[in-house]
Amino acid sequence: MLLGKVVGTLVSTRKDEKLEGLKFLVVRQINVENQETGGYVVAVDSVQAGVGDVVLYATGSSARQTVLTDKRPCDAVIMAVVDTWEVNGQVKYRKE
Amino acid sequence: MLLGKVVGTLVSTRKDEKLEGLKFLVVRQINVENQETGGYVVAVDSVQAGVGDVVLYATGSSARQTVLTDKRPCDAVIMAVVDTWEVNGQVKYRKE
Amino acid sequence: MLLGKVVGTLVSTRKDEKLEGLKFLVVRQINVENQETGGYVVAVDSVQAGVGDVVLYATGSSARQTVLTDKRPCDAVIMAVVDTWEVNGQVKYRKE
Amino acid sequence: MLLGKVVGTLVSTRKDEKLEGLKFLVVRQINVENQETGGYVVAVDSVQAGVGDVVLYATGSSARQTVLTDKRPCDAVIMAVVDTWEVNGQVKYRKE
Amino acid sequence: MLLGKVVGTLVSTRKDEKLEGLKFLVVRQINVENQETGGYVVAVDSVQAGVGDVVLYATGSSARQTVLTDKRPCDAVIMAVVDTWEVNGQVKYRKE
After folding, report:
1. Closest chain D CA to residue A31
2. What ipTM was assigned to the predicted interfaces of this complex?
3. Which subunits sit against E, judged by 3+ Cβ pairs under 8 A?
4. Rounded Cα distance, E39 and E79, in Å
């Protein structure tokens, strides 16, 4: 899994029928120092994340293992909102 | 999923039999600022996208989860035409 | 899928038994401008492609969806010989 | 599989129900010279690894093949703690 | 599949039970010119390859399609020892 920050939302009305009802979030990738890396992904939200949340997302077939995304053409899912992480004993992020 | 702009079409007559009837589109990758990143993919179209459309595409095994691409040797599918997205409250793209 | 140009062949006699009978081709990746990008892949040929052909190849589990590669330890397959593609109305390649 | 060094832990309380009970570790990627490469992954721990351990991790659908991660939205798993490796006859790492 | 050169071995005693009995090899990636590219992978050996061998390896779920790696948390497998390959009619490598 990679870390990301939810920065926005995406709307699509013309889409594959299997995508009906899914919410798409725009996620900027961040590294373990909590810095943006320049990468991004558009991910389906399975945990009611919101703009500003720091999240974990899974990609590939693992993105279809939530109840919400099962058998859907989805290759990225937000499956956890992050509370905190630390590196070498230092807290790098803590959700307020 | 990643964002892309459909820029062209591709034709192949000699192909695996499981690919019969699929339409291939040439897609340039774009980032969340709606800028081309230099990358591309040739994707199967599942939503009747056209040249000029901004789309979402899925890759890997997730690209085989549409009715159209089920069990086919396809690793990239356009499964949504994008209406709009925003980042930090700013609209970055809106379909005309 | 990505575009590639078949540039050579590879021979292996000591290999997993599930690979018996497959032909391996050396493929240089090309971009939508029909320029080599420096990347490559060794792919199984499912369409009798030859050196010099411009092809589409699929990777990952999708590479096992042809009849030829089903359930084999193959992560890249050539599943189409390209006739032509165009970008923004310009033909970028046409098979002679 | 790639080599990594476990450098920290991550906590999430709001997560997909299928992730309950899994431990997330922050892993910096290392190369065969035992140097950090700048990359990272957040991986599920299946072998009771701890901060400071050098580990092997698997990604993609292979990350769901441990008993612990079966059918869960997990795309990276630590499945081995490394004792030692050598390159061209030179020991590059040995667990103390 | 990609080309690699086996340069070493890796030992792990604490590992997922499904990995028992597998041999891990350290593989440096090479390109079609038979030059190292800086990348590497730790792969399971399914063909009794040895240090110094030039090999083909498969990644992702395809790495689990050998009899040896079936249903194991393995995302890279050596499934062929390379005898020779050529590019544009020139032999780039030949096993001695």
Report:
1. D40
2. 0.94
3. C, D
4. 19
